[in-house]
Amino acid sequence: MRTSLFPPLVRNVIYPIYRGLRGDRLLTVLDELERNQWLSPGELHELQWRSMESFLRQITTHSPYYRDLFEESGLRVEDIQNPTDFQKIPFLTKDTIQETKSRIVTKDPMRRGYPTSTGGSTGEPLYFYRDVAAGPIRRANTLRCYRWAGVDIGDAQAVLWGFRLEKPLKERLGEAVRNYFNNIMCLSTFGMSERVMHGYARRLRRYQPSLLIGYPSALALFANFCKRRFTTGIHPRAVVTSGESLFPHQREVIEEVFACPVFDRYGNREFSTIAHECEEHRGLHVCNDLFSVEIIHESGRPARSGEVGEIVITDLSNLYMPSLRYRTGDLAIPTERRCPCGRGLPLLDRVEGRAFDTIQTPNGKSVGGFFWTWLSREVPGIKQFQIEQRERSGVIFKIVPGPAWKDGATKHLEKKIKENCGDSFRVNFIIVDRIPLTPTGKFKFIVSNIEERLIVKSKIHKAHVTNEAPGKVDCIVVDEELMERSNLAPGEKILIVDNTNGARIETFVVACERGSGNIITCGATTQYVHTGDEISIMAFTWSDESSGRFSNILVDEDNKFVRYLTDTAGERL
Ligand SMILES: [Zn+2]
């Protein structure tokens, strides 16, 4: 148990000496960034554009990937004079990074980099290189944003983050020393049980951090714990949330319990802080003196003020592994509104659609995205994964295996999951070739359908098969009128129950002439369901309600509509 060092001592003595020993320009950069934020939007744009020109020249000279990209696209750096020209440059995707990483990395012998991996929001670990020279710039930017929250260098911070606990001793010691002299206390979000949170509360009361930083889900969980247990005496000046979407109910409970404002931050492992709320809380200021942040509408054009789009980033200070128009997969809404604080940095109305959903356990715990991404990196050979939850008692863990995958690895995964989610938590592993995108083209690595169940929505009761066509593609052809009345769509998956012989067949449905009364089985279905058989045709849907619209129709001997039997699923028959 320890208390924090005297903040002015850290701020004015220890920190400047530490930075001096490292020989970097962090404090000079911080002054520069402080000045930048008060420039007008026009001046900031000009500043960004000057950095952009030099960035483009450097990367097309030293990175084989970008040199080829410009050549193949018929682009020249001197032709890129404004944002419209800039949009001609193709996007950089996570797939491209996976495939051509070594060609993206600069061949400039003066540049140094170091690798870092990120779970991102795609469920696919991505290995990135950070530019050593950009380190102080990134840190200075984070400090600038902390100042918006009223917190400065040396003020004690407590960080509630997904820290790995099993690290080599040497690494742990180095971190402990660094954190001690920087006034930082690290608390891991893994396994935050009541007992652990009780310990955290005690440590925080003694440490009294000026700033609490963490995932919104973890901070809200902890705030709720404090509220329930009447734990008082933790008085930070500000809370910064990051790493997940911040929901209003989370902000509310955190602000209520710690009696201080919450500042939301958007950032990631690749770029650190990209956008941050100021003291006015009117949205997130984009640090566009260091990044070009575009919000691209799904139609491909820039999103207008108030429209949702994907965040596309160019990090102007990473010249080791340059990311030019990098698609993050995260969504945000830009706004033309100016912030009353007077800073010229543009605003995002909010960041939304971060894929960090949570998984619920039977004992009421919610397990955030970070645990699952961390877990996926624990085991070698997981190329991509998706966690799907349909009921509280467990999840379906889909894995796209890479070359290093071993079948026995699921045992290790299961053990880790049970440790975190409880022994009764069930995990069903499925190895798949690919994980499809959502209908809107997004990738969700956590799919929570917890309140949903498959319920019947359509039924054609007591129909008769009029014909069979064994040579055709396997399906069932149905009079279009009956399909409409029973709410079946062409191509929809259906279940045929043959009342004559008890067969149950799954296939899909195709429409035929309206009013014809035709019901024709085709392909393999004809082996079980024959002309003259009495059948019922049913279709189901996922729903979060136990009852819903149910189009259940009765037909006569000639497959003519007679009447609706019921129109609500779940109704007593
Ligand atoms: Zn502001």
What is the CATH class of the largest domain?
A: Alpha Beta
- Count of the separate structural domains: 4
Task: Report how far the terminal alpha carbons are from each other.
Answer: 65 Å
What would you give as the CATH superfamily of the largest domain?
Answer: ANL, N-terminal domain
Q: How many E strands?
A: 28
CATH architectural label of the largest domain:
3-Layer(aba) Sandwich
Low-confidence stretches: none
Secondary structure category: alpha/beta
Please outline the major beta sheet: 11 strands, mixed
- The coarse silhouette is globular
Helical residues, percent: 25-40%
Radius of gyration over C-alpha positions, nearest whole angstrom: 29 Å
| Beta fraction | 25-35%
Count of runs of 4 or more consecutive helical residues:
14
**CATH topology group of the largest domain:** Rossmann fold
Name the hetero compounds present: zinc ion
Strand order of the largest sheet: 4-3-5-6-7-8-9-13-12-11-10
